[in-house]
From TrEMBL:
Pfam families: MoCF_biosynth (PF00994). CDD domains: MogA_MoaB. PROSITE patterns: MOCF_BIOSYNTHESIS_1. GO terms for biological process: Mo-molybdopterin cofactor biosynthetic process. Residues 6-151 form the MoaB/Mog domain. Keywords: Molybdenum cofactor biosynthesis. May be involved in the biosynthesis of molybdopterin. Pathway: Cofactor biosynthesis; molybdopterin biosynthesis. This is Molybdenum cofactor biosynthesis protein MoaB. The keyword Ubl conjugation does not apply. It comes from Brockia lithotrophica.
């Protein structure tokens, strides 16, 4: 099974075209190391709850992604609202998944404890929040990489 991948970058400066996304290709290549993915959707949203919600729902409904990775907006800054928007979109939160990501990632880089990333599902899509900094995104993604495909299989009823 090839999984349909979408990546949403949350960044005010990226949305205004003032900054380039340095995580997208890195995330896609890391995922491709472990599971068959087809990168079908990419978007950029400003750090605004409604814009993030709309972009997430659009990728799930229009692009029918199986796996939706967000980067950015998970920290402690006043405009970091990706987790709040994600919580409004998911049907079910998978708290242990995000907790394990923080635990494992913080063993490599203690600052990863500051990520407020959420992992959950909407219908048959797995949503994973990652930090915006490329190194942090890589550390967090690699921390849970082995769990993504089994989670996708469970969500889609392909595994008992």
């Amino acid at each position: 099974m090839t999984w349909r991948l979408g990546i949403l970058w949350i960044s005010d400066r990226g949305f205004r075209g003032e900054r380039k996304d340095e995580s997208k290709d890195l995330i896609a290549s890391i995922l491709a190391e472990r599971l068959p993915v087809d990168f079908v959707a990419y978007g950029v949203a400003p750090d605004e709850i409604e814009a993030i919600k709309e972009a997430l729902i659009d990728m799930i409904e229009r692009d029918r992604v199986d796996l939706l990775i967000t980067t950015g907006g998970t920290g402690l800054g006043p405009r970091d609202v990706t987790p709040e928007a994600t919580l409004m979109v998911v049907d079910r939160v998978i708290p242990g998944f995000a907790e394990e990501m923080r635990r494992r990632a913080s063993q490599i880089s203690p600052n990863e404890l500051f990520t407020r990333a959420v992992i959950g599902t909407r219908k048959t899509t797995l949503l994973v929040n990652l930090p915006g900094a490329p190194r942090s995104a890589e550390i967090c993604l690699r921390a849970v990489l082995d769990f993504i495909e089994p989670a996708l299989e469970l969500i889609q009823g392909r595994r008992g």
